Amino acid sequence: MGGAPEPEEISNIDIIRSPSALMAAISGGALAVSAVLKPSKVTELSLCPVFHLTGFECPFCGMTRSFVSITHGRFSEALDYNPGSMLIYGAFVWMLYISVRNLIQGQFKEIPHTPKWMYKAWITLTIPIFAWLFWSRLVSNLF
Fold it and tell me: Is residue 131 part of a domain?
């Protein structure tokens, strides 16, 4: 009578379908693929549909090659492929960290969040870099 409510049962399927597990799978998967690929094998790789349709690099062109280079410690090479890649790579590492942390702590139902100060600092750097890439790679080629 009047005792504490029973804790809600959480099944393995609930954990697998949770926002934290999804985020861990996506970010961890991208980082794992960049670890498996060899930098020398992806130097000419271009997966970008915008590049294949227009012949112009989009702001995200070079991101795969850059991720592979970062993972293998080739930072100057990564910057040559895409100057914004370090920020996106850092976001993937952060997303993997907070999603795994939430899974370990049993926080399955909520979307992992980032402190506002960190998000604001990241977005303040990211938007100008990708705006410049958009201008220098795409728009300037049209005029």
Answer: yes
Handedness of CA 55, 136, 75, 113 (dihedral sign): negative
Q: Is residue 4 part of a domain?
A: no
Question: Residue 143's CB: how many other CB atoms inside 10 A?
Answer: 4
Q: What is the largest CA-CA distance in the chain?
A: 77
Range of the domain at 88: 12-142
pLDDT at 3 exceeding the cut of 80 = no
Tens digit of pLDDT for each residue in 111-140?
Answer: 888 999 999 999 999 999 999 999 988 777
| Whether the predicted pLDDT of 99 surpasses 50 | yes
Best CA proximity match to 93, nearest among 18, 17, 13, 23: 23
